[in-house]
Write a structure and sequence with these properties.
Blueprint (H helix, E strand, L loop, with lengths): L2 H10 L11 H25 L12 E8 L10 E9 L10 E5 L14 H9 L2 E5 L23 H18 L8 E6 L1 H12 L6 E5 L6 E3 L2 H10 L8 H19 L3 H7 L9 H20 L9 H8 L7 H16 L8 H9 L10 H12 E3 L15 H12 L3 H15 L9 E6 L17 E6 L17 H24 L4
Parallel strand pairs: 3-4, 3-5, 5-6, 6-9, 7-8, 9-10
Antiparallel strand pairs: 1-2, 2-4
């Protein structure tokens, strides 16, 4: 490895950010994306023994495969170039297994084949490591790909067909055979893809690990904020009943000011970039505040200044003038951590952001992902039920309106798409085999995943005290015992299945 390559990595990592005008959860997701890149960067260099070991290191191979834009209509000759990464460092030729890391709703980098539990397992089992960036994300998109007429080829079904074509490409490139069993890995939406790839293409994929995989599509995802409420009161991660009560009362105080038409006070107290212009902006405002807590729960322990313990310490602090003042402080701490001078609460600004067809080759693809929620999954995190600690202004209708405004997709079409997705994949009863579903009890997305063993080889691992995709990160000395045990259980199943593969597929 050259010094210039290292310098380039160090320069690029801090730039994987979001614009100032994004909603708070978009800011959080993009920061998590950057932090995970940095964490895998550090983990990799610790493993190779930087700087001495890195001098002889050969970077993974980056390449592009030409894919049909529409796998299901061969009369459509349009194509796009899809990015992949290959790491041969551990592979034992010719019969070593293949570990596939599946990309999702953000750009992919070389660290997808350099760090993480799947890489640790690949080192143990002498596997070839490959990863594939999801179509329409990162650089795997045509220049006009985000236009309304072009984005219609973005779907999980097309993505699975991409994976099948990639399987053939890699098999031909390395002269693979039945003696090279494939195991796929993914987390969050890619976790669902990992399970679905095994479900729909069992002749290609021998086994799958699906981490934090919301395999059940749901239009009105009310359970998300039920889990957030439970987590804010969970003493294991620094929550408490007092904290949850303080958060609930603080949002009631905000709602009271909105109902009284006192938006000016809220604009000042919570550093709004502009005046709140009516109900749509009010909903955007309370959503931004709720995002701080939702993000802290979903990604607990990943952002030092925005985790459950930190927020509950502020909300429950003795001597605070009021829960409203505590909420103001939470907002300020969040802004400071994100480098924001104000918060964009404009609904029209959100519509403008999602309507932009400019392709961004790094970070999270917000327009693309919202399109997928409108056409496949729903997943709208609402707050109209009594168990939600935030504002009832966070409604299903307010989120469905974006499908209509941005993509011209009517509400009944969204509902039909969600039903079809569950029929097509089997929701949280997929009826497959050799899949490990891994979830943390803090992660709100576990409510849409598989939490109980479905069969002898459809296995559910439920981790106490962990959040979204925690098991996928590189092992660390401060990992809680429950996480270490879960990783060991995953490793045992992978080892057993690879032994079975050698027997079934004719390997040595």
């Amino acid at each position: 490895m050259t010094a210039s390559w290292l310098q380039l990595c160090l320069l690029l990592l801090p730039l994987l950010g979001a614009s100032r005008g994004a909603r708070n959860f978009r800011q959080i997701r993009n920061k998590i994306h950057r932090l995970r890149e940095t964490e895998t960067f550090r983990s990799f260099y610790t493993r190779v023994g930087f700087p001495k070991g890195a001098l002889s290191y050969t970077p993974p191979a980056e390449g592009y495969i030409t894919q049909p834009l529409d796998h299901f209509n061969r009369r459509n000759n349009a194509t796009y170039r899809q990015r992949y990464w290959i790491n041969e460092e551990f592979w034992q030729r010719p019969d070593g297994p293949v570990f596939l890391y599946i990309g999702g709703e953000s750009s992919l980098s070389e660290f997808s084949v350099l760090s993480g539990q799947h890489v640790e397992l690949a080192q143990k089992h002498r596997a070839l490591l490959v990863s594939l960036e999801h179509r329409y994300y990162g650089t795997s998109i045509n220049r006009d790909g985000l236009a309304l007429e072009a984005i219609t080829f973005l779907s999980s079904q097309q993505a699975l067909a991409d994976l099948a074509a990639f399987h053939l490409f890699i098999s031909q490139k390395f002269s693979l055979s039945r003696r090279n069993p494939w195991i796929c890995f993914g987390g969050s939406y890619p976790g669902s893809l990992s399970a679905w790839f095994r479900l729909k293409f069992p002749h290609l994929v021998f086994a799958a690990v699906a981490s934090s995989a919301p395999v059940r599509a749901e239009l009105d995802f009310t359970d998300y904020n039920k889990v957030v409420a439970q987590s804010l009161s969970d003493a294991v991660i620094g929550g408490s009943a007092k904290c949850l009560d303080a958060v609930t009362r603080a949002f009631r105080a905000v709602d009271a000011l909105l109902q009284a038409g006192n938006g000016t006070q809220l604009e000042k107290d919570f550093s709004s970039c502009a005046a709140l212009q009516g109900p749509d902006d009010y909903a955007q405002f309370v959503s931004n505040l709720a995002d701080i807590f939702m993000g802290a729960v979903q990604y607990n322990r990943e952002i030092q200044s925005n985790n459950v313990q930190q927020l509950c310490r502020i909300m429950s602090a003795e001597g605070t003038a009021s829960v409203y003042e505590a909420l103001r402080k939470v907002n300020q701490v969040y802004m400071d951590s994100m480098g924001l001078s104000c918060v964009d609460n404009s609904y029209e600004s959100a519509v403008k952001d999602l309507s932009s067809t400019e392709v961004n080759p790094v970070g999270v693809g917000e327009r693309q992902w919202y399109y997928q929620t409108c056409t496949e999954f729903g997943y709208y995190q609402t707050c109209e039920g009594s168990s939600c600690p935030f504002s009832p202004l966070i409604t299903l209708q307010s989120q469905l309106d974006l499908c209509s405004r941005v993509f011209r997709i009517p509400v009944d079409s969204v509902e039909q798409s969600v039903r079809f997705t569950n029929e097509f994949y089997g929701a949280d009863h997929p009826k497959s085999s050799r899949i490990i579903f891994v979830n943390g009890d803090i992660d709100p997305w576990h409510a849409l995943s598989v939490l109980k063993n479905q069969s002898r080889s459809e296995i559910a691992i439920y981790i106490n005290g962990t959040a979204h995709c925690a098991n996928m990160s590189p092992s660390r000395p401060d990992d809680p015992p429950s996480l270490r045990e879960a990783r060991e259980e995953i490793a045992v199943h992978i080892a057993d299945w690879l032994k079975s593969a050698r027997r079934e597929l004719g390997g040595s």
